[in-house]
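Run TetR family transcriptional regulator through structure prediction, thanks.
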Amino acid sequence: MSSADAPRWKRLEPDERREQILECATRLFGERPYAEVSTTDIAREAGVARGLLNHYFGQKRDLYLKVVKRMLLMPGLEEKVSATGTLRQRVERSVEWYLDTVAAHGKTYVAVTGAGSIADPEVERIIAEADDVAAAKTLEFLGLKVEVGSDARHRAMMRSYGGLVKSTIREWIRGGTLSREDAHLLLSEALITIVRDVFPHLHQQPGPDRGAAKAGARRGKDAQ
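Sure, done. The structure for TetR family transcriptional regulator is below.
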């Protein structure tokens, strides 16, 4: 190993070292497809021995799952964004914070949220769980404390809004077809409309016929 390839050692506390490795992995998974990133690449980028990376995170897949969780859950909304003010003020502040957070690792966010990014049931499970957590957190932040299980339709609508969020960010970060201002406008106005105009009508609408939905799903599988 040449001096240029040797790890760039710097003494850090364990938590700081873990964060450094995770930060480097986050960046590399955004720059290259999953299959083209090795633990050796990540260790070199972080300036650590590969054995230390494995000690902290296990194999590459384990580290990738950590990156997926970080990108999707993005903790900090409650601590960094005030939940006071009008609905519009709260929504616009939360969307602004979210876009700021995504912008730090936009390519990685697009990579891990893109359809078929990596065919792995565990990744799919993490994404589904993160979508549900994000839906519940958004409802609570907006002052609509819908407990898990009390009204699945509120959370389902927020998960649907989450799909719009992901698509909008892809158009902004990867496609360049939307500006950041466009993304902020679309996501803010859509969320305000859902909360102000759609949610009040939910109690007037009949819930889904789950029996019919399951039967339709079975028919669809039988036809395949």
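The chain is about 70% helix and 0% strand.
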